[in-house]
Amino acid sequence: MTGTSRSGNEPPIGRRMAELRARRGMSQQVFADRIRRSKSWVDKVERGVRTLDRLSVIETVAAALGVAPDVLLAGKAPREPAAEPGGDVERLRAALARYDLPDSGNDGRPAPSLAQLDAQAGYAWTAYRNGHHPQVLRLLPDLLCDSRTQPGDAADLLVRVYRLAAQVLVKLGEADLAWLAADRAMNAAAGNPWRAGLAAISLTQALRSLRRGGLAVTAAVAAIHQLDLAPPHVRQPGVTGTLLIEAALAAAVSGDASAAGELTERAARLAEGQRQHDWDGIGFGPAPVDLARALIAMWSGDHQLAVTTHLRVASGNAWHLLPAEHRAAHLIDIAHAYLDLGDTRAAGRTLVAANRIATWETRIRPVARAALTAVFRAGPGAVDVSRLADTIGLTRER
Fold first, then answer.
1. In this structure, is residue 259 part of a structural domain?
2. For residue 207, pLDDT beyond 90
3. 84 CB contacts (<8 Å, ≥6 apart)?
4. Whole-structure pTM over 0.85, yes or no?
5. Which range of residues forms the domain containing residue 361?
6. What is the 3-state secondary structure (H, E, C) of 37-84?
7. 282 φ, ψ to 5°?
8. In a domain, 167, yes or no
9. pLDDT value at residue 140
10. What is the mean pLDDT of the chain?
């Protein structure tokens, strides 16, 4: 596959890139900044002078355009296989361990401006919402270092980037490292209630992943209290509501069903009449509250209620408005409810559906692999389940 060699009536990949870029109102320079390439590189790809045949580059381009790589590939197979995230996690670990001074850390690269870094952070969050986690992992190390060494007030940017690092690390099962990133986000928040509320969302998730549900509830409730005391223009229902949901989930994990129920009801009252809000890892509205209810029911042992609640939400229009990452992550959780009910076929169908929505949710998350392993080892199943198991390297003999 190259930028100039195509079959049938499909336009070359470079031309599709140009069309999608223009449709989103991005100039070549803006697009180049988002993918950390030169304007000349973008122009040559769009004109077919340069090839675009590396999977990592295709994923970068697709994520910046807000589409799946298949939209660019148009059915053509990339030349290289998807890489395991281990090396990128280590790069991220090293980036979190750095303590650069404001005038160092760019490794000879031109220092990007605050506006450029903010745009790159926005692009990385878009990639996360679309489930392009390997791309997020590749971006984060440089983005972390560049953001931390940015002169002037970069607190908002630092909170955004550290939060993103924490949330993707939670998905990878790197709970300790996620906690470190979330703690850095809290420090960067510098006492600002809105920033601290955003950072506390990721901190609560990291602590829940560490099975520290009580500490997670405390962190979330403290952030909610500070937001309640803040001036009206600082408060945002989306942040407070998401904190309430995260606190409820943490309470459920720690076995406090009463607190989980109370916090969920508070979130439900706040969500009444609210349009669904999705931004930088904040998903709030009636549908996210109900999805949280399903998970709380599952963790409380009522697996049938969990499945019933999930099916009701997934049959509504609001389900399809949720980010791909949110829907796929929830499906993976619900697969465990089906497994606890002994319905391995439904669990398998749910995992396949998650894979169709956001492939990397199923391919790099340990919790997804565990669910698929249980389904696969239960015996012969659907062809698409076997195909998914083969894709991530599972065999029945393992």
1. no
2. yes
3. 364
4. no
5. 323-398
6. CCHHHHHHHHCCCCCCCCHHHHHHHHHHHCCCHHHHHCCCCCCCCCCC
7. -105, 115
8. no
9. 94
10. 85
